[in-house]
Fold:
Amino acid sequence: MIQKVQSWKSTEEAGAQTWRNLHRCESGQTIAVWLGAIVVMSSVLMGSAYDMSVAWMHKQWADTAAQAACTAGAMDMLWAANNGIPSTPVTAYNFLSSTSGDCATNSSNAMCYYAKLNGYASPGLTSNASSNDVSWSMSTTQPTNSNSSPTLTTTPSNGVPAYMNVAVTENVPVTFMGIFAHLLGMRNAWNTIQVAGHCNCGLEGTATTGSPQTIAINAGFIGRFGDFEPIADVTCWSNSHCSMTSSPLIGPNDPVPANTVVTVTSGAIARGEGSASLSGSVKLEVSCNSGSTWSSMATLNVTGLGSSSLPGTASCTVSNTNQIELMVTVNLSFGSAGGAFPAGDSFDVQIDGASITTPGSSTTSMHVTSFQND
Amino acid sequence: MRTRQNITIRSSIRTGRTAIAAWLTGDARGQALIETALFSMVLVLMMALAANFAYVVYIGAGITSAGRQAATYASQGQQAAAGSALPAVSAACQIAANEVNGWAGISSTNWGAYSASSALGGSSWANTSSCAGNSNFTAPAYNADPESAYFSANAVKMSATPSPLVNFSLLGKKASTIQPSATYGRIVYMRQLN
Structure:
């Protein structure tokens, strides 16, 4: 009986010992603690690594967009420097009149257009929300540490600075870091990470501008009215008023340097003879060939005919087809009611010394370069 | 001394089953082996996943860089002081090709370079046939330069579907079938003076 009791006790103690072994603190504690720690630590590390990787990718995109925007702006600067004018080819996109700006408020320029094409529409930065902003500034001095040679250290002859900096700033949404911040009670603290891409670029080389070229217009008698001696291209009726367009004084298709801005610096002289009540206008028209059609027509107007110079200037830009045309159009009436020309009256239109001046040949040794990204 | 050596030898050659049995019965000598084995599997899996994720990031950065370099070269190729002519777009293609050649998951059929200008008609991209295989590639939406009579817009579009760098097996399935497959694409636009 005693042996049975001892045997039972022995068995009971052995089972208890096994149970204690299974649940002994030292036995499973290490793996449980380590597993828990690893899960927490790896979640934090991998989550942060994921968010930072995404932010780093956005940084690369922002750098690329900054370079594209900066290059686009510098291309406009190059064109303006080559042509000796402080404006972009299309004035609606001109940004060269100011030295800095932001695409959130002024998006009509090449920088904003190319930043948008590369993924940054620049609506402006919004705190703790996905957003971006593109801004630019121009400088007359090259950025430091550019290691660029040769460099253009002076402002081109058109007065526009030679260097530009574009900054693309983006608030990148984060996933895991935002969750961690919320768990730690920092509401909205890590909803976004701000990354920025910068690019310095500008014009490199030597700015040289050729001598201005003048294309003179031969002075001469081109039309006579009143005595009604019609010439070609003259349209008159009822002896009351008439209009005519001269044959081209220059052109069509007279060659001038590409990208030349043609400016008429002095006009014609219109003379009325006989009746003093003649009125009308004389237009000196300059047109440039842009592709297959003539365009960019500009006019000089005069009213109250007499021996006076036509005021103002007319200009247009010659595209790469190198063609220009200049003509004279006359519109005349007799008196305010448009009466007929009195018998014996006459009217002459004579071009006296008008000319077309081009700013000279463009530079050929300048080009755009990106100096650095940071 | 001899007994201790025998115990050590026996412990070192235990199978996992005997180690687990020893652990259940309170024998702590197999515990480290079990823990190491468990941790190793988890750590190796995590390292493989981290390597594959890093490779995806690397591909993404590389694609962005390739497009950027190609587009930059297409628009500013005349870096030499005496240079005047811009390179052909085919040269930009080659720049991009040099960047992506040899990457896993990148083939010559999923990237391409495009350029357009008023001289080219200004209404569509001039698909460069010299980019190998890009006839199967969809061109990006056409965006003309706002001053297209004077400037051209160059675009280089790159995309890739990277394969897992570490194609490990888990429960008999390859990582390439477990991990989500994604195509990564990027378009870079740069401007050039005509």
Observations:
- The longest strand of chain B covers residues 151-160.
